[in-house]
Amino acid sequence: MKIYTQRLESVESDQQFKTLELTFDTRQKSRFRATLNDGTDIGADLPRTGILRGGSFIATQDGEVLRIDAKSEKLMQIRAKTDFELLKAAYHLGNRHVPLMLTPFALYFEPDHVLAEMVRGLGLEVYEVEHPFEPESGAYAQHSHERLKSHDHRLSPIKSLHHVN
């Protein structure tokens, strides 16, 4: 089993690497096991320096590089008729310290039907969707907004799986 022990800030443009999609829950951990698409079992024993964001790179002692991508997972999506309504939902969810992904058109959080009912009570629509989860890291965390800008596909509206009642 290959063990990845290093976080990389960047890689050379000609660097060869494999990719691995992981959920947000796994990307928060410094130690985990996973299986690559080709069936190779890998392990990670990384320094505890933060969350692996989609597009992060990790490496083995021998220099083998792996790009980590954010895997689509079940999320709750909030849509609103106005920017103010969306802002209001973000305020109320933030007040409850809910990990929240912000986009210009929607908010996303991990499935929680109590929170979904609260948001519906504010007059907003809540849907269950499949989408990569990249929540805000907080005002004091070091987080590259440039990396998020490079993933514009996450900022566009997506089709929901079904409306949650």
From TrEMBL:
CDD domains: UreE. The gene is ureE. Keywords: Chaperone, Cytoplasm, Nickel. Residues 2-66 form the UreE urease accessory N-terminal domain. It is found in: Cytoplasm. Involved in urease metallocenter assembly. Binds nickel. Probably functions as a nickel donor during metallocenter assembly. HAMAP family: UreE. This is Urease accessory protein UreE. The keyword Chaperone applies. Belongs to the UreE family. InterPro entries: UreE (IPR012406), UreE_C_dom (IPR007864), UreE_N (IPR004029), UreE_N_sf (IPR036118). Residues 140-165 are annotated as: Disordered. GO terms for molecular function: nickel cation binding; unfolded protein binding. One of its GO terms (biological process) is protein folding. One of its GO terms (cellular component) is cytoplasm. Its main location: cytoplasm. Residues 143-155 have a biased composition (Basic and acidic residues). The keyword Disulfide bond does not apply. It comes from the Bacteria.
